[in-house]
């Protein structure tokens, strides 16, 4: 068991990309070398034999190693044996190395690679390494080294990018763009090729700030991107570079062979797909799928200057594109699209002299902040993408009052006690504010701890605020001053939200660090610790006698509150393997105790109420309710929200529905917040769209688009203000 409590000072802030401070890009920081990981593949220095010779390397992606899938592992062994026989200078892996990032899967993946090839494989993480694992980056770094880094080979600068987000599906570059800019400054005119998991631009909306990424790299000779995720070959030319999304090796014996040629028209990389034969005795087939120019941009080098004027019914646009533009089109950025593709309609603009003009329909657009995308296409099909932001005026119930930039991403639920609100950031900054009146705030204190990916919790008397940290610590701060009162240390990152339970013997603080559930008193003393199978990332709950938590083996568990002794478990799904048991289970659920005494357990398929003493099922409601905490209403109804933005009020005793309606496009982790003055439930979609719900009348009204960031943080209502946190690192107050 880890130390119960410690009154030591605060730790240094850690970066979003590496829990151990290894996220800075570059080999010169001492991050390379075989000593970092258990295998030589942890090295990130220049690949063996690369030098200044003509490049010859391999790209593969989406191997999805899983030792429970024998045919898939045999496919990987065949692919890596063939790659080894080619003796490439290095191999780039674009992520989704495994199904869910366990050590068993990484070990199986390693066993599929010949020893002589291993030290030439360079990895970037995919969402499958990061999405379902509370120790994701630590585990990745143990096996492969840092998640973002760069190296030089054959006169080309290579950069591994990591826009993955802990415990989330889509990507975000965030603060790492500044480190990327510094890296590109250092290499000057050397052409750069990047590799990452998510493809960018075009119909790809997997990374929410891809537009900021394109602006960051625009001044530099970035000539290519290799990506994965979509499991098929796809080539796009935009903004002066060529992007190659690669076929998934999981799907068959496929990889890409990349060879540098220079026939007098400048260096370029020829990209071929190699498909192995049905057996080792059968010859492989090779198909040229495209090329990547290195010395000159293929298209889209000239920026588009955009003027956008939002009106009541339309957005009037004027765009000045490059002289090669044969067509210019525009659209409102589909902010509701979350980690997916979108083939929505682009509106053509008409040429008039040296500029292009047109209107975008805004008749159904909510008031607030939106992005407008413009793309110019040349005769060869190359494109340029640029984006501008607009603020559409309109009458709304919620009116922006103030903003406070905190930094990092505000990914966890906000905590409130009386007039004090506490926000935690992935940068490690914790800020407490006092909400004053209808439109004011005052910063009370700020503290710097380890990165926080989940929200804090006050003790019941409001004296302490407990902050979970990816630095393996739960830190209790004095709620008046922000000073450290005590620290409870763990062996693994603390990536769940604390639950504080009042008992006759004082508060009990329940917190999980991956596979360990701990009960502490208000002084930070550990009372007991229990095992949670696989992992948990949600929040525990208690009825005063028992503790309930969701686990990564597809089950929910009950423990004795006094001793931590296990009492019962409830199986939420009967999926056939460990990976599916995890992703279809309650591993990320805020378990809740209803006024009836029943325990509410949610997954991506159902909300299930069970008996607290026996775990026997009482009722279930279909729908992906795992990501948004439910809300008890003053009239006794239970407000449920699905991942897909459908809200329902049900009877907590039976699950019988009262009404149901579509509220917003999608909700992830950010549940509704109740205004006790009039009973309105405010709900923020993952795309930043705010809706007002009247639970009694069953009415839903979209109010405004708050921002262009994503949000995973449940807001709070304090007095006359709604306080909202977002992935752009800004805390916002709105008068409601």
Question: How would you characterize this protein structure?
Answer:
- This is PQQ-binding-like beta-propeller repeat protein.
- Pfam families: Metallophos (PF00149), PQQ_2 (PF13360).
- InterPro entries: Calcineurin-like_PHP, Metallo-depent_PP-like, PQQ_b-propeller_rpt, PQQ_rpt_dom, Quinoprotein_ADH-like_sf, STPP_CPPED1, TAT_signal, TAT_signal_bac_arc.
- Residues 442-569, 608-734 form the Pyrrolo-quinoline quinone repeat domain.
- Residues 55-232 form the Calcineurin-like phosphoesterase domain.
- With 736 residues, this protein is mainly β.
- Among the domains are: 49-222, Purple Acid Phosphatase, chain A, domain 2, CATH 3.60.21.10; 305-392, Immunoglobulin-like (Sandwich), CATH 2.60.40; 417-665, YVTN repeat-like/Quinoprotein amine dehydrogenase (Methylamine Dehydrogenase, Chain H).
- Helix content is 9%, strand content 40%.
- It contains eight helices and 53 strands.
- The strands form 13 sheets. It has a six-stranded mixed beta sheet, with no helix packed on it.
- Strand 29 (464-469) and strand 30 (473-478) form a beta hairpin.
- Helix 6 packs parallel to helix 7 (210-217).
- The longest helix is centred in the first third of the chain and has 17 residues, at 70-86.
- The protein starts with 55 loop residues before the first strand and ends with a strand.
- 55% of the residues are buried.
- Residues 1-42 have low confidence and may be disordered.
């Amino acid at each position: 068991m880890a130390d119960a409590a410690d009154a030591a000072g605060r730790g240094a802030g850690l970066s979003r990309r590496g829990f151990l401070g290894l996220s800075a890009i570059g080999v010169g920081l001492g991050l390379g070398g075989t000593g970092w990981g258990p295998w030589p593949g942890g090295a990130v220095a220049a690949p063996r034999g690369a030098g200044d010779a003509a490049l010859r390397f391999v790209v593969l992606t989406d191997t999805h190693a899983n030792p429970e899938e024998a045919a898939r592992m045999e496919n990987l062994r065949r692919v890596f044996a063939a790659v080894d026989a080619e003796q490439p200078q290095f191999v780039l892996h674009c992520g989704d190395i495994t199904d869910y990032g366990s050590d068993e899967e990484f070990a199986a993946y390693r066993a599929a690679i010949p020893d002589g090839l291993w030290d030439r494989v360079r990895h970037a993480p995919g969402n499958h390494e990061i999405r379902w694992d509370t120790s994701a980056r630590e585990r990745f770094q143990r096996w492969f080294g840092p998640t973002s880094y760069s190296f030089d080979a054959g006169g080309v600068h290579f950069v591994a990018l990591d826009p993955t987000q802990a415990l989330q599906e889509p990507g975000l570059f965030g603060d790492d763009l500044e480190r990327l800019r510094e890296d590109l400054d250092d290499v000057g005119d050397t052409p750069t090729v990047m590799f990452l998991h998510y493809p960018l631009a075009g119909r790809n909306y997997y990374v929410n700030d891809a537009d900021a990424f394109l602006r960051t790299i625009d001044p530099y000779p970035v000539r290519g991107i290799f990506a994965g995720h979509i499991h098929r070959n796809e080539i796009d030319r935009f903004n002066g570079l060529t992007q190659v999304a690669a076929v998934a090796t999981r799907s068959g014996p496929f990889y890409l062979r990349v060879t540098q040629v220079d026939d007098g028209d400048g260096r370029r990389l020829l990209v071929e797909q190699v498909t192995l034969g049905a057996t080792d005795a059968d010859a492989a087939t090779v198909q040229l799928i495209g090329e990547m120019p290195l010395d000159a941009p293929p298209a889209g080098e000239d920026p588009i200057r955009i003027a956008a004027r939002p009106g009541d019914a339309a957005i009037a646009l004027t765009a000045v594109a490059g002289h090669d533009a044969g067509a210019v089109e525009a659209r409102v950025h589909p902010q509701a699209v979350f980690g997916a593709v979108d083939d929505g309609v682009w509106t053509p603009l008409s040429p008039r002299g040296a500029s292009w003009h047109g209107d975008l329909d805004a008749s159904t657009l909510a008031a607030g902040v939106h992005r407008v995308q413009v793309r110019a296409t040349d005769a060869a099909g190359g494109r340029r993408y640029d984006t501008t932001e607009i603020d559409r005026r309109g009458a709304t119930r919620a009116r922006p009052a103030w903003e406070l930039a905190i930094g990092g991403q505000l990914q966890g639920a906000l905590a409130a006690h009386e007039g004090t609100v506490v926000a935690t950031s992935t940068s490690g900054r914790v800020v407490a504010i006092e909400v004053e009146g209808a439109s004011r705030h005052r910063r009370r204190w700020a503290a710097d701890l380890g990165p926080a990916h989940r929200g804090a919790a006050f003790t019941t008397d409001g004296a302490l605020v407990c902050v979970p940290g990816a630095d393996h610590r739960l830190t209790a701060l004095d709620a008046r001053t922000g000073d450290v009162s005590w620290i409870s240390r763990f062996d693994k990152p603390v990536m769940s939200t604390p639950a504080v339970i009042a008992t006759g013997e004082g508060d009990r603080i329940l917190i999980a660090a991956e596979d360990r559930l701990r009960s502490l008193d208000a002084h930070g003393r550990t009372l007991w610790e229990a095992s949670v199978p696989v992992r948990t990332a949600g929040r525990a709950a208690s009825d005063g006698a028992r503790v309930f938590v969701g686990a990564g083996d597809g089950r929910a568990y009950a423990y004795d509150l006094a001793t931590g002794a296990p009492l019962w478990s409830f199986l939420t799904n009967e999926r056939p393997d460990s990976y599916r048991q995890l992703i279809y289970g309650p591993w990320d659920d805020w378990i809740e105790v209803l006024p009836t005494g029943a325990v509410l357990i949610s997954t991506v398929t159902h909300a299930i109420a069970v008996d607290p003493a026996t775990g026997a099922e009482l009722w279930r409601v279909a729908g992906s309710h795992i990501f948004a905490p439910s809300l008890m209403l003053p009239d006794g109804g239970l407000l449920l929200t699905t991942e897909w933005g459908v809200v329902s009020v049900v009877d907590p005793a039976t699950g019988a529905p009262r009404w149901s309606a579509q509220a917003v496009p999608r909700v992830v982790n950010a549940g509704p917040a109740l205004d006790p003055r009039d009973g309105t439930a405010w709900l923020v979609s993952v795309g930043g769209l705010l809706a007002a719900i009247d639970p009694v009348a069953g009415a839903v009204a979209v109010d405004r688009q708050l921002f262009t960031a994503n949000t995973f943080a449940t807001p709070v209502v304090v007095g006359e203000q709604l306080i909202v946190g977002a992935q752009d690192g800004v805390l916002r107050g709105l008068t409601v």
